[in-house]
Every structure is written in C-alpha cells, then in structure tokens.
C-alpha cells in the first residue's frame, strides 16, 4: 500500500499517452528502445531513464525528439531487468530499492551500448543525456568515461563530485529552481567546484519556478505557465548536443 500521507518525493508527473516511433531491441544482456532518423548519421545519443524505467512513455518521447533532430537515440534498460519504481510503491522502501540500482555502476552496460552504436548503427560521435536517476548517471559518466563526447544531466541528484570535479567532456546541467530533492545550495557548491577544477566547457542553468522532472514529466498543454520553460529546457538540451556532437 502506498503511503498516501506524505507526498511522493519523485512525482511521475503527466504520464504521456505516447506509443513511440522506435523499436525495442536486445543488445547482449540489455533490452533497449532505439529510434533512428530517416537520413543516415554518425551521431548518436544514449538516453538514461529515471527511476520509472526505460519503458516510461515520457522518456521515449524525449528519445524520439532527439531522432527528429537528426540523432540515433537509444534508451537502454539500465536496471537490467530489475523492476522500475512504480508510483504505487511505498516510498518507505525506496532506499532499499535504490541499493540495487546504483547510478554510478552502469559502466558495463554503457560499454555494451557504445559497442552496439558503433558496430550496428555506424555511430562515431556519441553523447548522453539523463533524467533524475539518469542525470546522476550522466554526471558519473562525464567524470569517468573517455568514449563519450558530451553529456546533458537533467535534474540529476548531485553526487560523485565529492572527490573530483574535473569533467572529461563538455557537460550541461539543467536544474529546477523549486526542486525538492536538489537544494540550490548544492547547485551553487557544484558550480564553485567546477569553476575551480574544470578544464572543459560546462554550463549550469537553473530554470525559474520549475520543479523536479519539468523537462520530460510535464506536458505543455496541461501546464501553460510552465510551457516556456519546458520548451526552453528541451531546446537548450538539443542546442548543447548540436554544439558538441
């Protein structure tokens, strides 16, 4: 039984009624959703899902948006068959659930996906974007993985920066001003660390009045007051990828 008395810390938002334009494939031990543009390209983006998993229509919508902009997009199941979080789950069990789904332990899966993109899709320039849980995973990859060109971390909980902040690749950080999980002091601290240690391009942007998940979990038609920021966040993400891929 879900705990109704306290608000859910990670609201699923407006679940899109969206089927997707791509297809599901099996890549070694990983299931993945892949969408390719009509014209051939050597540019690809790995999309890292949030706690609600690789099948959330909202995340597939974002993958398809990348394809509309000329990229091969792939959204693998980084939980590798383990169940995604459901809004009906009891949030008291969330930390235990998270223990077996560590955003900093996806390197093996990323290597498998990189190999697939290069060998099966002809990709040479590969970037990564991630939302929420996936945003933290992007931070990890930007600090560690030499084979990616760039990353966009969307409202990823700030970890992995305790002992290092020398990003390997240009990274764009999207944060929401009213995010209950990521206090603005943490964002300020991250900016200070990056300023001191970072040798590559980066940008940290806070979107006014927005809440956690706004770029992929809100529908413009339901939230007219948020529409400009939702659109701006998506445009900024695409522009960053265009610049560095």
Automatic annotation (TrEMBL):
- List the Pfam families: DLH
Record protein name field: Carboxymethylenebutenolidase homolog
GO CC list: cytosol
Domain (Dienelactone hydrolase): residue spans on this chain: 30-245
User: Origin organism of this chain?
Assistant: Falco tinnunculus
Q: Where in the cell is it found?
A: Cytoplasm, Cytosol
**Keyword Thylakoid set for record:** no
Main localization category: cytoplasm
Q: Which domain of life is it from?
A: Eukaryota
Q: List the molecular function annotations (GO) for this entry.
A: hydrolase activity
Query: Which UniProt keywords are given for this protein, alphabetically ordered?
Result: Cytoplasm
Sequence similarity: Belongs to the dienelactone hydrolase family.
């Amino acid at each position: 039984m879900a705990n109704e008395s306290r608000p859910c810390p990670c609201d699923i938002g407006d679940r899109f009624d969206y089927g997707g334009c791509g297809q599901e494939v099996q890549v070694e031990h990983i299931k993945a959703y892949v969408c390719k543009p009509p014209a051939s390209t050597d540019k690809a983006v790995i999309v890292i899902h949030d706690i609600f998993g690789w099948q959330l229509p909202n995340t597939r919508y974002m993958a398809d948006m990348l394809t509309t902009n000329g990229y091969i997009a792939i959204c693998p199941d980084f939980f590798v068959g383990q169940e995604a979080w459901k809004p009906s789950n009891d949030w008291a069990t969330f930390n235990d659930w998270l223990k077996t789904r560590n955003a900093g332990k996806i390197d093996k899966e990323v290597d498998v996906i990189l190999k697939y993109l290069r060998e099966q899709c002809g990709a040479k320039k590969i970037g990564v974007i991630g939302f929420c849980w996936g945003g933290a995973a992007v931070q990890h990859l930007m600090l560690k993985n030499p084979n990616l060109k760039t990353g966009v971390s969307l409202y990823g909980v700030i970890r992995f920066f305790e002992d290092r902040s020398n990003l390997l690749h240009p990274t764009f950080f999207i944060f929401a001003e009213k995010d209950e999980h990521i206090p603005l002091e943490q964002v300020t601290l991250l900016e200070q660390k990056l300023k001191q240690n970072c040798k590559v391009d980066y940008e940290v942007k806070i979107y006014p009045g927005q809440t956690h998940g706004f770029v992929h979990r809100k529908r413009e038609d339901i939230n007219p007051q948020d529409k400009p920021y939702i659109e701006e966040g998506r445009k900024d993400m695409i522009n960053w990828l265009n610049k560095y891929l």
